[in-house]
Amino acid sequence: MEYIWDMLEATGISLLFLAIVFVPMELVFPAKRNQKIFRPNWILDLCFFLGQYLLWSGLVIWTLDYFSEYLSSIIPLVFKHLVQSQAWYLQAFEVIFFSDLIIYWAHRLQHRVNFLWRFHKVHHSARHLDWLAAHREHPLDSIYTVGLINLPAFILGFPLETLAVVIAFRGIWAIYIHSNVRLPVGPLRMLIGAPELHHWHHDMDRDAGNYANISPLMDIIFGTYICPDKEPERFGIKEKTPDNYVGQLVEPMLPKRTWKRISKRFKILESER
Questions:
Q1: What is the pLDDT of residue 188?
Q2: 246-253 long-range contacts, Cβ below 8 Å, gap at least 24?
Q3: Domain range list for the chain
Q4: Cα–Cα distance, 21 to 152 (Å, whole number)
Q5: What pairs with residue 203 in β-bridges?
Q6: Mean pLDDT across 82-89
Q7: Total-model pTM
Q8: Burial 56-76 (b: 16+ CB within 10 A, else e)
Q9: Which one, of 127, 124, 96, 64, lies nearest residue 214 by Cα?
Q10: Burial class for 38, CB neighbours closer than 10 Å (0-12, 13-18, 19+)
Q11: pLDDT tens digits, residue range 68-79?
Q12: Roughly what angle, to the nearest 10 degrees, separates helices 77-84 and 88-112?
């Protein structure tokens, strides 16, 4: 019981902290000026937030811990010692560079491979972007993304405690680039990701571009960088998707025919695109 209360307290503090940080930013520097704080489907995204913090974060951490032990057993100690003997800034650069390289191609695959898209489309089904919409992710999609983005750190022998800090930083960054904020950084946007870049990734076009994570350099190198000087007209996807939390969790895991029978039987609403 004490553990449950601790989880609830941590979740409440996190929600309050993020709201205090990002709501004022969205009010003062809005990307879409007419978007309200309590816009349509904000309750659905709140469910994803609560699900991540109360349910699925433990599953993700357990998966990372499991693969960390597995990789530790197959990576030669000589290699680990060689890497760890480097200066910390070299290790940091290597982790960031290889993480961005891996997640760039992993993210492109999520948009190209239909099986991966089934889970990733949950994230792209959001028709309004803000700090809360960043949490709309299927838990299996989160495991895929978090696992691959931290793969270089596993290989280089970083302890799970250090990875937790990296994961937290990337989490805050992900929330920022999804927020309804437009703070143009000029030429620096070629080096540092920003909401104005990631918002175009959430355009209705499934292959809109901007697949990179922290830095857009991979998009520039591989020709998928896009950043018009305006916001996209619409966010979301062209497919029908459930407009409720349980439906968005279950639908990607079932064959289409099975899902159609279940949604019809239980009258699960789907949104028209």
A1: 78
A2: 248/44, 248/122, 248/125, 248/136, 248/138, 249/122, 249/138, 249/139, 252/118, 252/119, 252/121, 252/122, 252/138, 252/140, 253/140
A3: 240-273
A4: 30
A5: 235
A6: 77
A7: 0.88
A8: bbeebeebbeeebeeeeeeee
A9: 96
A10: exposed
A11: 667 767 777 787
A12: 120
Residues constituting the chain? 273
What are the tokens at 250?
């279950």
| Cα–Cα distance measured from residue 60 to residue 33, given in angstroms and rounded to the nearest whole number | 35
Q: Which two tokens stand for residue 75?
A: 């990576």
Residue corresponding to tokens 């433990």: 58
What does the pLDDT look like over 181-209, one tens digit per residue?
A: 998 777 777 788 889 999 999 999 999 89
Beta carbons within 8 Å of 46's beta carbon, 6+ residues apart: 132
